[in-house]
Amino acid sequence: MNWTTIRKTPELSEPAPNPADATPFSWEAARAELEGLPGGGLNIAHEAVDRQVRAGHGEMIALRWLGKNGERREFSYAELARSSNRFANGLNRLGIQRGDRICVLAGRIPELYIAALGTLKIGAVFCPLFSAFGPEPVRVRLAKSRARVLVTTALLHERKVRAQRAALPDLEHVLLTDGDGAEPGVCSFHALLETESNQFAIPFTAPEDWALLHFTSGTTGSPKGAIHVHDAVVAHRMTGRRVLDLRPGDIYWCTADPGWVTGVSYGIIAPLTNGATLVVDEAEFDASRWYAILERERVNVWYTAPTAIRMLMKAGAGLARNRDLSALRFAASVGEPLHPEGVVWGLEALGQPFHDTWWQTETGAIMIANTPTQDIRPGSMGRPLPGIEAAIVRRRTEGGVDLLEPGAEGELALRAGWPSLFRGYLDDEERYRQCFVAGWYLTGDLATRDADGYYWFLGRADDVIKTAGHLIGPFEIESVLLEHPAVAEAGMIGKPDDFAGQIIKAFVALKPGHAPSDALRKELIGFARTRLGPAVAPRELEFVADLPKTRSGKIMRRLLRARELGLPLGDLSALENNAPGKTPEN
Ligand code: WT7
Q1: Contact at 8 Å (CB) between 129 and 261?
Q2: What mean pLDDT is reported for the chain?
Q3: Rounded mean pLDDT of 573-580?
Q4: From the CB of 363, is ligand 1 less than 6 Å away?
Q5: Using a 6 Å cutoff on CB, does residue 445 contact ligand 1?
Q6: Ligand 1 close to Cβ of residue 455 (< 6 A)
Q7: Which residues pair with 331 in a beta bridge?
Q8: In this predicted model, what pLDDT tens digit does every residue of 475-504 receive, in sequence order?
């Protein structure tokens, strides 16, 4: 089907187009909209809460928390400032220094937001861990970050951390949000806060001081810790304003979990620095519940993801029809390709089209988007934002890149230099360096640009898997499966799925003496689920005699995928064991 442009007629861009869009853009001007700290300092938490309180907005609601059992709690900007001050004082008392890493392993609970802001206030580094990760991904990230403090719940601690504590020598303090940890090195988050003062003066933090650590996955090796600095807030605030159309007093709902970058950049920082009220829903996706939240909370701006949009579409527009969604002014999507049907469905079912936006953990903030004032091309990610120079490039074998013309397919590249660009992968200078060629940051995404400057996503250039919007590295899963005594080799691919975009499919070759069976398949999937958590474990598993590998022993996941999908196998010259493995079951 050929979807035409959705024009921003006056009816569509209610209220009138965002005036910020019309002013000439410079990062200096965007930076000047922030308050900063005396002496040229900058602190994300200051811009997010303390500044709002000082400007007289202390009584405005910063966080409206909807518990999964129907509870409802509101935190004003003043209350969030006080609680995060208490946490900052508590961290100081524990001897936490600037640059130390504070991890939070929790679902969407208020303590997560307090901990994030308090951490930033003392100049420590906030590192969220997705609560659906199993013990193995949690251990790897805690170890790599060398976290000194972990904020978590009693249940998550018991299930995912406690038994591994001996392997985490840097982890001095576990703070339980709902328990009083009667063991050494474990104490109560709230008991710590209770004894602290509401007052805290943010010490000088420089714009280039580390602020956030987000783990992300590549094709090879363990997860990479992308480092962001306080200066990133310039991009968070600007994009919150220009892309998500956030205005002071807006009710804003970002459905992303703060265990991932979207839930921090756009679930905490962008909305608070723009003076909005965050709606945080603790519960998991449920179509009726979501419509009820949009209606009852009178959500003005909504940021969600294609997997959720597809599930809402499946549940039927009928569920939306008897809801009053008139408060909704802007809807946007991120994380995976948003199919044109989804864009248009938003317009029909919610009264607002979904605006696709594109960015990555490494870019820290939205780079390419269908903005409030521009016509939408359904199926396109939109155009580069002001201050962002994008290109479609081809890497030259001898180094450097060629910039390609409109219509050509190539790798999406961004000219390095915007404030929220990551400043490194923790302890991995080499991998960081490899992301840049001739002043361009290479994204690893394949895309094309049309003659009007709209970018269209084609796929990943590498083997990482996007499942339900979560970026998963195949290596992390393969490593865990290899620990099972029956497994000789394992390779993961993303297999297209109508809802999750992709699901994880495992190919496994067994060691001599083990035979494929349904029971063993279930056992291996169960093994992976226990170790990795349900979000990361493979959903499907197929036994093969052996896995296609390069001469240097790398698993050719591209070939596994091509075979699975019946695609042309492409260049096989690198293949070591040239007889493609057959499943022993056939
Ligand atoms: C990868 C980044 C998006 C920020 C949070 C996730 C894919 C992202 C889109 C989009 C098609 C998209 C890309 C990208 N992606 N947005 N609008 N259309 N694909 O960040 O986990 O680092 O994932 O998500 O492949 O490289 P992330």
Answers
A1: no
A2: 94
A3: 64
A4: no
A5: yes
A6: no
A7: 302, 354
A8: 999 999 999 999 999 999 999 999 999 999
Which pLDDT score is estimated for 19? 54
DSSP state of 124: -
Asked whether 471 lines ligand 1 (CB < 6 A), one says yes
CATH no. for 463-565:
3.30.300.30
Report d(CA 540, CA 228) in Å as an integer.
Answer: 35
Q: Is the peptide bond before 207 cis (omega within 30 degrees of 0)?
A: no
Closest approach atom of ligand 1 to CA 262: 5
Q: Give residue-wise pLDDT tens across range 44-74.
A: 999 999 999 999 999 999 999 999 999 999 9
Report residue 118 as tokens. 């308090």
CB atoms within 10 A of CB 275: 20
> What pLDDT is stored for residue 34 in this prediction?
98
Same fold, 10-449 and 463-565: no
- Distance from Cα 359 to the centre of ligand 1, integer Å: 6
Return the CATH fold of 10-449.
Answer: Rossmann fold (3.40.50)
CA 360 to ligand 1 centroid distance, Å:
5
CA geometry: angle at 107 spanning 106 and 108, to 5°?
Answer: 120
Q: Is the pLDDT of residue 219 over 50?
A: yes
Cα(442) to centroid(ligand 1), Å: 14
Q: Is the pLDDT of residue 451 over 70?
A: yes
CA of 582 to the centre of ligand 1 (A): 33
The residues spanned by each domain of the chain are 10-449, 463-565
Model confidence at 583: pLDDT above 70: no
Neighbours of 380 (CB within 10 A): 26
Alpha-carbon Rg of the chain, whole angstroms? 24
Our answer on whether the CB atom of 447 is closer than 6 Å to any ligand 1 atom is: no
Ligand 1 centroid–CA 337 distance in Å is 8
Nearest atom of ligand 1 to the alpha carbon of 256? 5
Contacts of 242 (CB under 8 A, 6+ apart): 18, 20, 21, 371, 372, 385, 386
For atom 11 of ligand 1, the residue with the nearest CA is 337
Distance CA 101, CA 120 (A): 10
